[in-house]
Amino acid sequence: MTDAPGPLLAAQVSAGDTAWMLAATALVLLMTPALGLFYAGLVRSKNTLNTFMMCVAALAVATVMWALVGYSLAFDEGNGLVGGLDHAFLADVTFEPREGSTIPHLLFMAFQATFCIITVALVSGAVVERMRFGPFLVFAALWSVLVYAVLAHWAFGGGWLQEKGTLDFAGGIPVEMGSGFSALAAALVVGTRKDYGRQALLPHNAVYVLLGAGLLWFGWFGFNGGSGFSAGNSGVLAFTNTLLTPACTLVVWFALDLLRGRQVTAIGAATAIIVGCVGITPAGGFISPGWAMVLGAVAALPSYAVIVWRPRTRVDETLDVLAAHGVAGLTGILFIGFFAQLSWNGVSDGLVYGDAGQLGLQALAVLVTPVYAFAATFVILRVIGLVTPLRATEREESLGMDVVQHGEEAYVTGEGAILVTPEVGHETDAPVAKPV
């Protein structure tokens, strides 16, 4: 680390841009506990704490791995596939602005760390209610380095997709498609819950879900607005589009719910907010506000269809990360290829405005990203599974992951009751776990 910057460096750093990026970083960090609240409401009450704790674990493990090696692999020059190790252990990450930036390099690193954190937390939604906490910690550490950092390098760390000209404003490739298709692989490796397909596995608290979704939307203004890395036009455009797109997704989702079941559900509304935010994530700084509204309407359709279809399969991807993030992120990436507008973004036009090549570049990203994310996640979990069991036993599932993995309950049902723990078979003073 160097000392505080002198007058020359002070002239290179924009105080206004730095202030905005400090706020944006805090907003994105808020998204991880918000996701924990959103996810916790979607599971059964006996798994509330464990589900939230997976997001807390992502915050801790991904941050450490990012500082040690992940940031360097994502943003050091390296080669087209992966960055180098010049910034490992945050070497040479100082107050000096990164090349082409008006904010301190340290702040750029911290902002990017929050993206890695939330993405690891997102993947947990595929395996909640049955994956053991210890193996998840190992998975979070490996996945943040071997999957997220690599995809981030491809998309906006100087990697091969960025060099070819693929556009991704705020993480449609590493965050949204990366988490969605990794979630599918994780669900297949870990397997279905014991009650899946035999009884309704319903959300236990819709208010948590709505509150979590609202806080996620709030944080997304930093997620997308901050990805312009300044208080300039691109950030303003992405910020505004982050208001418009989810609102349009909500309206279309309401209509779909009414057509399908004549009832607008709270869980559906919360999911629609997420789908809209995800859809605009890659496109936020590249399309006009008008097209952002169209994207909101369009993104609702494939994600809604996958959410309706998935429970009819044997794929127990618990919280529909694939539909809400993988499919919606894919939609946003492709939408850029059609409707990017040079007059708004100063970068490129899409097919509608005369550049068919941009659509081809976007299509390339939606072909290679799912393959890498799925394959790498599958291998990581298989390797961990060779060392330690990934999932709880059926009896542990019945008791609930809160008591089995953490020795606590979200909702205390009694005081001073006796619990026989399944692992060691001895009595404790913990409250009795009552399967839901």
Mean pLDDT: 92
The CATH homologous superfamily name of the largest domain equals Ammonium transporter AmtB like domains
Strand content bin = under 5%
Number of domains: 2
CATH hierarchy, class of the largest domain: Mainly Alpha
CATH architecture of the largest domain: Orthogonal Bundle
List segments where confidence is low: pLDDT < 50 over at least 5 consecutive residues. 1-11, 415-436
The strands making up the biggest β-sheet line up spatially as 1-2
Total beta strands:
2
CATH topology of the largest domain: Ammonium transporter fold
Q: What kind of sheet is the major sheet?
A: 2 strands, antiparallel
Along the chain, the helix and strand elements come as HHHHHHHHHHHHHHHHEE
Work out the radius of gyration: 22 Å
Helix content: 55-70%
Q: What is the number of helices?
A: 16
Structural class: mainly alpha
